[in-house]
Design brief:
Blueprint lengths: L1 H6 L19 H17 L5 E5 L2 E3 L13 E5 L8 E3 L9 E5 L5 H6 L1 H8 L3 E5 L14 E6 L6 E3 L8 E3 L4 E6 L2 E5 L9 H18 L9
Parallel strand pairs: 2-4, 5-6
Antiparallel strand pairs: 1-3, 3-5, 6-7, 7-8, 9-10, 10-11
Amino acid sequence: MARHIEDEVVYYYDSHSTEEDLMGETSFHAALMHYLVDVLTWFFHERACAIYENLNFYQTSNPHEYPLAPDIAVIKGVAYQPTRSWRVSKSGPAPHVVFEIASLETWKKDLEEKPLKYARMGVHEYFAYDPHEPPLPKSSSRRLFGWRLDQDGSSMKEMPIGPGGSLWSPYLESWLVPDGAMLRLYDHSGQVRLTQAEAEARRAQVLAEKLRSLGVDPDQLL
């Protein structure tokens, strides 16, 4: 118990704002972040997978370390647990996948500085997306950017773009496809990955159509 208490670090930025905390969040940013979390949560709901929004990630025991706080972090093989922050190696592994959603204030850093920072933390895949209408200046030619950790783990290489600006993510087992203000995930057969609400609505629709084909009015069963 004493050793456990000694290992606990009270990080300054767990109770004080970072620069990112002080920035406003556009409706584009908020809508896409919540949508992606819903899609990923449903896709992995039968597997151990922790998905966090804006969680502070640390790499040392220095209480004044400035954290990395991706908009979305996906940690496979780990069950979700409520936590104030995450210390890589002590709390668990580095995220397998992180997302940053563009803002005018952070987009330059997202594209130019974050790939190396996430590589040093051990992140395997990093995706950055601009949902704004019109797109921000640095993403006028495309909205989606992706990087993958090198085999030696020292840096990240930008992923080659597929048809329609898409990228394949082995860790998410999905194609990431730009769709204006939204970023969609598709499986290998071209089926879009759904949120739980969308999946349940689709199942209800299929059942209703089946009942109608049998001459039963599903509305009369309610």
